[in-house]
Sequence to fold (262 residues):
Amino acid sequence: MSTEEPAPDTAMEAEFDTVAAWTEQAIADLGHDHAVPAACRGSGSPGDLAWLARGLDLRGDARFLDAGAGLGGPAAWLVDHLEGRWTGRPLLTEPMVHAARSARRLFGFPTVAAVSEALPLPSGSVDVAWSLGVLCVTPSRPRMLGELRRVLVAGGRLGLLVLEQGDRPLPEQPEGNDFPTHDALAVQLADAGFRVDDEVDAARLPGSPAGWDERADRVAEHVRRHHGDHPAHRQADEQGRIMGRLMGERLVTTQLMLATAV
Ligand SMILES: C[S@@+](CC[C@H](N)C(=O)[O-])C[C@H]1O[C@@H](n2cnc3c(N)ncnc32)[C@H](O)[C@@H]1O
Fold:
């Protein structure tokens, strides 16, 4: 997309679609060793992903879904991390079409453009799923959780990265985001047919390995150099600024959860 093109309709499109497509180009310019860290931006660090991977215990040819996969970095990390133990291939769903296309081109995984409240998958067709940073942007958490439960087999495992709101009121909120409280989410998970097995505050987990943040930052800087004046970049920056403040003040925290479909 050139800087002459119109701004996207919403801040979420700017952040998750337009910037995602620019990120693909930046990775092409900087080298594929930048792909996984850059395509994990906005979600978990390797420490978070490793905690989830341990609990999800993917093995053999288990069928795995990443719902709201963004650019596909977490799924690519998982494939590398489980090499030799899990022989399956991730299926990615992501509603932003540019992001979905970029994910497919970057990592070659089957990727379907779809919202998580209406997954184009048969019931009971997935053994293990994760959804990272999506429960706060879906227009309907109950519908999304209901869909995840429908597509998972009974006994299937679900990993979640959730941005949760604490007790204190939020001074500002990024457009399109609605952060659940811990208690509200617990009720919604139970109502959807999930049992929570484990959870942890991501702040307690190890940080990223050497070089990870640097590669992600180089890609972000490249995108800024080429598109920093574009309205979509400014919109995405503003979303990022608000998130940074909320997380810096721990008004919103990153929680990881493992659940079983009952
Ligand atoms: C914070 S990003 C996380 C992306 C990816 N899971 C990761 O961890 O890198 C949130 C993602 O949710 C997607 N999203 C927004 N609304 C959605 C919906 N209704 N269903 C599924 N995904 C949605 C966005 O397009 C974006 O890719």
